[in-house]
Input
Amino acid sequence: MGPAKLQAPKGTFDILPPDGRRRDSLRAVADDLLGRAGYGAFESPIFEDTDLFARGVGASTDIVQKEMFTFEDKGGRSLTLRPEGTAGACRAYTEHGMHKRPQPVKLRYWGPFFRHEAPQAGRFRQFAQIGAEALGSDDPSLDAELILLLHELLERSGVESRLRLSSLGNAGAREAYGEELRAHLRHRESELSEDVRGRIATNPLRAFDSDHEGTRAVMADAPRLIDRLEPEDAEHFAEVRALLEDAGVSYELDPTLVRGLDYYTRTVFEFESPSLGAQSGVGGGGRYDGLVEQLGGPATPGVGWAAGVERILLAGGANLPSERPVYVAIATEAHRRTAFALARELRGAGLGAQVEQAGRSMKGQMKHADRLDASAVVIVGDEIEVKDMSTGEQVQVADAREAIAVVAGAAVSG
Output
């Protein structure tokens, strides 16, 4: 009996080349879109001090209480695989003195994150996110800009979505409202789920997220934070909405939207896709004006979002650009080195190119070019011929330079 078959751990998955190409395309779209808006590439460590997330995400959240992958290093320090990206960005902002740079500081990131959740469609224990953060300004145009950038990213990725939008006001207003909500919950405590009862003191707003029937009945007539915004916060939120309306982006005002993290203030938003079923959230975020200070930095407003890569691809991905390669076919063994060199010249000219490397017959090579969805096939023999795979037209060329010119035309038309 041989050794046990090894598999990827529960809640993780391998990315094979066809899916890898879609992810590459999505990242290219995100980098282009966010880069043109001034969001610079940023990376934080995959693991951080556990205290960063306990303080930043919130000790009463599901993430901190139930979902973090936490371990001790050889020095006895408690470290955690990052469950989200905003806390790390805020830590880096403070650590590297980014408050001394021109504000706002705009960051974009892409990478793996980790949560110990029950795996299901669109939800994994290791997953990738695209994120964007703007730190150092409370201007409502930043809130609107980030929402519009995520809207455009989803649109360009072929994702049908709807936008839910609300405001949580400032920390003081939220705390006052929290006391009002706690009184409402305690008055009808027997109707609540055990989980919500346990959070009345620490995080009563999470009751809005409950699927428990009794809790939902209690929350149906609960007071709404959006009705208790202070004038400055109401004005800020009105400006965000006006900018979205100017851009022609529709939204649903949802006063029950609280998001799952403790650090949000003012604007909160979430994009949902009907094609994802129960796990419909594809991306979202909001403003977190007190988080940097909470983590030991200077008072710094901030706003940002994160979107799930797997969820975007599950919900759409049909519109993502995909480069069609050029395939270099070899007529006889004597032409192998010429074909190999021509493939290198095609790549040097900025074209994707693959050369025959499995000993196929010419008929087999043409079938393989079809499987690759090649835009063109360059057949290297005593002469060099280029076949446009979209039209079927085949022409003879004098040399590699002419082949590149013809292939470039076929790639554009394809």
Summary: Residues 17-169+229-315 form a domain with the BirA Bifunctional Protein; domain 2 fold (CATH 3.30.930.10).
